[in-house]
Automatic annotation (TrEMBL):
It holds the Pfam family TP_methylase. This is Precorrin-6A synthase [deacetylating]. Keywords: Cobalamin biosynthesis, Methyltransferase, S-adenosyl-L-methionine, Transferase. It is an enzyme of class 2 (transferase). Pathway: Cofactor biosynthesis; adenosylcobalamin biosynthesis. Residues 3-224 form the Tetrapyrrole methylase domain. It comes from the Bacteria.
Amino acid sequence: MRKLLVIGIGAGNPEHMTVQAINALNRADVLLIPTKGDEKAFLADARREICDRFLTNPACRIHDYAVPVRRADGSYEDGVQDWHRAIAAVYERTLVNEVGEDETLGLLVWGDPMLYDSTLRIVEHVRAAGRVAFETEVIPGITSVQALCASHGIALNRIGLPVQITTGRRLSEGWPEGTRDALVMLDGVQAFRTVEDAEADIWWGAYLGTPHEILLSGKLAEIAQTISDTRRDAREKHGWIMDTYLIRRPATESEEGAA
């Protein structure tokens, strides 16, 4: 039976590759590298650098594919579902046409496949269609959450207190209930500017793990504009941006007592 390896490759630094991920890379007969246009060519180049550095299987075939564009009209959920089905069609065609019955296809996933990445859901679309049989194995990777905390030298959580990992879209709708700490990913709307708390701290990072990495931290109210300006300038320079940040609000007396 065909096999599908979903390999977490880390947040951008080739040295984030684990021994397990390197071994999985070399078990693949075919590797798929997504391309997202000139603006995000770095993401494809980073995957190729990983292959150049760690791939020792000379028989492995590498195929690029253009990532379908997600439509912006209609509801967000419908747009995402249509986008996932389009990518699933690429995976299915590759399994059927490029991968032999006893061969293995490898997908190189930025960060970790379990955290704000849809590869595993897309794979299930392929499985549900029932046109090709395959086994799946998932290899974990270092996430931007880990890279952010390591680069800033901080712990993700405070003792006894929860952290919610969320998106910029959700944060812009209001602060999450039940926590004073929010780790925000996929923020295209600069939702940190909606947080009105003079005592809140922020640890922000962009291009984590890459040579372009940028780090800023301090009181949110004091550096929000600096982050916005830095973000804008970096996007203009590189043509794209991926950033992650942790906002920590002061705990209440009852929360500190419970902790």
